[in-house]
């Protein structure tokens, strides 16, 4: 079999050092962003004009045009930024109080269920995969699974919170930089996104690595037990992400729909107009939904794919022969990924300079391409030095011989499938291509045709991503069984730092545009921030594509690990136990989507009523002489999202427990397969439909081409039809779609954690009858 070229000590140094470099790099980026000042006292432009009275007037006009000279603008930006930051922080604290209660309750549940597998006995047991050896008791797995669950949950919450803090710190700075040109604003927004991306990737890696090493002190040689208990880390990460995504998604879309319907359609005022009472809530929502929710979501995917790979590896030759370097191969890939993303980020901020609006989107796409190409070489090097030339992988009861180059191909196929999904998503959601332009064109005949075209586009956009996922599943499974699928998912997520940077850039630019509008900056500055925002919309869709694609692979890998742990040899679809699970599992994403969509609808209804009330009852609001009551709208969004996030969360968290306890592991395996198959399709089509409607509206508003100008301007009938499409698409692309990928992962990882309990005590109904 041979040993890996990289010694164990090398691995133990490499992983934490890469994580620390990632954290260091994010701090450097944060420092560079913080150099942009949001206080006018230090604004040097104020003193320039007094010195040259000769042609001071002309200078003054030029300065005013650029908006540099205005004291009040900077003050206003700072004030709006504070309002957004306070709103986001107070919402997250409220959300975390509720989630904290759930976290403690669920931790107790994990301990009780897993401890009861052997009746809370503390004596060592024969190992499940090698009865000749003794392993640690089930009680130890219960204790350590609970600890790793709490660690994963806390890391996920911290990741989301830090991301939100960075975004609210950077939004006004991006607006102020836009006065100097689109390039400066782009760099500020992108750097802020990079802070979040690197912090999250490095934190997730570091906490997981430290946890493994601390657990190893107790577990010693029992690697199977050690990595079984690590699975709690993925469960913690994803369960927090579910509440973050659903709660944040309901918050942001209730505000967005309310602001759009009354402001744009009824009152005919621009987006982000300060007279609109829901405008602060809308901007807060971008941060809690798209930033905090997205951060927790991708952290969850990353934690779960690592856990799935480690569980399968622990019962393969890596774990049996105690080969540490090969065992930690998934973490080594993530470490190299951080270094690759670091180099890639420097290309965007320091190598290529953006001078014109049309260069923004290509610059972001270059990030994806550069990181993928560099990462391919990175994976090749890691596979060569960190793996033995040949080894065995556990494959449903047998050991399959695998070569290191085959494992390299598994990771690479996942990585490139991610890029393909990203680009297909971009094709269907960017207004530079015909699909979105066709949707925009359909607005000529009203909102109904716009909705029909948009839905058709979403369904059609599923085809290529599903083929990409199918090919990567086939290739990776053929080479390295379930371990191959787990590392393919890791391959897709290996460039997570760059993916998140691009993704967080979108909401930051969106907020920057909102601040420019509210602070009354010139039309030219709003045009620049709009251009940044339009590119950000497309990249957000690319980010969602990545999240959904990786979720499909991750949940399949977790499904494989679950089947191994629950000791099921085959899952036969033709047996009634499995088939009933399959058909019910396929229904769950619809039930879940219905809950989240209705939640957004009912919250938006309250918001619309409140915004209308303020316009009708506050004198001088439309004239701009009095300020609206922003706080009431923020409160409506907060209350609605906290109340409404509980039922969908309960549906996802309780389904595996109920099915496992009453119907047993075979039915549960059917439920997992069904929810995976239908969830992926709905998630992709919902995200892309919503993204296309949004960009069709922006295409008409920008009026950049002859075709777009025939549909505009703002306020025309086609534009109103586009706004209605965009409003329908909002909950699809930002609430239901992105939350579904958490549904499929979370049910799989939860089943994996509770697998020993279900295998021992599950299937009560079938035992009775």
Automatic annotation (TrEMBL):
It comes from the Eukaryota. The chain crosses the membrane at residues 13-33, 98-117, 137-164, 185-212, 299-320, 327-348, 368-387, 407-428, 462-490, 546-568, 574-592. GO terms for molecular function: diphosphate hydrolysis-driven proton transmembrane transporter activity; inorganic diphosphate phosphatase activity. This is H(+)-exporting diphosphatase. InterPro entries: PPase-energised_H-pump. Its main location: membrane. It is found in: Endomembrane system. Its EC number is 7.1.3.1. Pfam families: H_PPase. It is an enzyme of class 7 (translocase).
